[in-house]
Amino acid sequence: MKLRALLARATPWHTLFGKIFLWFWLSSLLIMAMTNVVVKSINKPFQLVAPSDIQITTLVSQGRRVLELYTRFGNDFFSELTYINERERTQVYLVDENLDIHGTPRPSRDVYPLLMGLLDQESPMIGTSKHEIWMGPAKLDLNGTVFYLLLRGIANDAELPMVSFHSESLIFGVALMLSGLLSAILAWSFSRPLKQFRSASQKLANGNLATRVGQSLTERMDEFGILGRDFDHMADRLQNLVSAQQRLLGNVSHELRSPITRIQVALGIAFQKAGPDAQNILGRIERETVKLEHMIAQVLRLSRLENQMQDLQKKRIDLNQLLEQLSDDAVFEAQASNKHVTLTTDKHHWVCGESTLLHSAIENVVRNAIRFTPENSSVDITTRGLTFDGCTKVEIIVRDHGPGASEMALEHLFEPFYRAVDSASDGGAGLGLSIARQVVTRHGGFISARNHIDGGLEVVLQLLDCGGESGSDAPC
Amino acid sequence: MPNLNNNRLLLIDDDTSLGQLLQEYLEIEGFRLDLAPNGKTGIAKADKHYELILLDVMMPDISGFDVLKQIRHSGNKTPILMLTAKGDEMDRVLGLELGADDYLPKPYSHRELVARIRALIRRSHIDDGGAPKHIKLAINGVGLDTATHTVTVNDQVLEFTTTEFRVLQALMQEAGSVIDKNALNLAALGRPIELYDRSIDMHVSNLRKKIAVAAGEDPKIRTIRGVGYLFITEETPA
Questions:
Q1: What is the dihedral of CA A113, A115, A117, A119, to 10 degrees?
Q2: Please, are residues A341 and A422 in contact by the beta-carbon 8 Å criterion?
Q3: What are the tens digits of pLDDT across the range A412-421?
Q4: Cβ B108–A253 below 8 Å, yes or no?
């Protein structure tokens, strides 16, 4: 390990800086080399290749023809040559010892270097320039004067020997592929660890605190490795902190509840032993104790909910069934104070979430409504399916027939310990609606309150409807 | 077994000062409470004849669940009342699944505690006492024998807790007709159903799971939403 670390420091390859530097250097070097090759191949005016046997035969037969023509026409030979050149696809040129070119049409100056190059050759070669293809030389002895025969053809694509074009495109292609490959490797070497980081941090953000980036990253010697080790260290700390906090919550809940339980039992003894005068005040102590316990439970629940790290155990929930159970219980509770609870569902709804949490959220809203609705009136629970932007939602509307709330109160209704009515004695801890809001928000929903036109408060819980027909309890 | 009716209870809870208070309080109510300050002593003491065991879930040495498992594993069928932390539904489900008869969330009111204790004891005495108690039932592939306290499903013998056995007995005695939850609660736990009380649903759910192991996909108990449960006979329409 020590050796590796030492090595890592010595070789620039092991740092991100070194990596980027070397890769860029290498690729720019490569590009320079390539450019050099290409530029040279472009600057070279022509390229010569050996002709095929058929081409040699053509050259030889043209040579014979020239000799024939010369013997037939003698000094009129050159005008005859002009005549042939005008009619045939292949033009014949003769170059004398003084490098004068005989034959029409006059070759353009651009091909002179090519012609000089050909004339330097011992044996016939083929060279191309633009769309002209030249072959030669063939030495002819015309009555003691030495001429060199050159043939010019207009090359169509098939006849072009393509060699020069081939070699250039080959070089270009190889350069393209090689540099592409190198760039891809470079890009990949950055994007792969970044992807790993991304997936790890996403998992962490989703509450999976046991997530680590993995050995392939932490064992690297470069900056990614350092970042990977730091990330894992951070995740360790985070996990420890959260589990410590959750342990603390658990302990607080246990430690606070133990004395309350003892008080409850002690009250039982006191009820039995105390005289009739004390019964009233003991009853008061008991009620306050129950309220204290209720508040502790709610504070704990709220702080657990606010601790975003806690992951929800989401499952498919039959909302109608949940509401039926809930309203059954609520009817029972409301009867005691001469109130009613009604439930009207528009159709079957399925939601995705943690059943116990959603139950307690809706229950809190309903209980709140029961508290504020006057005697002989009812709390109405209705559901309504909504679709907008292709999104199916379900609204659970809980309406009471009580006094409603002022505009100012409506804004603060869901804040912890806010009381619309100053009624400390009625048992509420002032946390029920805050818990409801936390739960609904954690489920990607929305909660709001408004006054009904015909009086009474209306609380609307909006949740995503996950639809479908299949049974409940499936994870989602 | 003769009805001892000794009113002796065992509390397994690490909170000794609570234990002492409970001792004093329950004595006024006519019970004798023995204390076991930890799981180990609890398991050892549970062998003796108690009418009821009160078992705390949160204990430092062995958790209440493990104590429960060991007591039930040794064949001890004494009624057990689990004392769970309030708001922890998982504890409740787990406790009933492992064979507790009822649960009481902590902190409980003294009245509630005594009411639960009385209900469970009353219920278990109905089983013990009375003359012609031998009931043998065989409906829809499920056999139940109160003398041997055994349940067979498709000739396979299944292990049930006392409460589960009572729930099944109540359902089978009325097979083919719906029993409402309150009646079922009374029959099984000896007390009427309470607000937000889901323990009977949990016992039925446990029953279903156990029966499903032997009966496969063929359901024997149907939920009648908003009312109660129904044991399906061959004649019950689908």
A1: -150
A2: no
A3: 888 887 776 6
A4: no
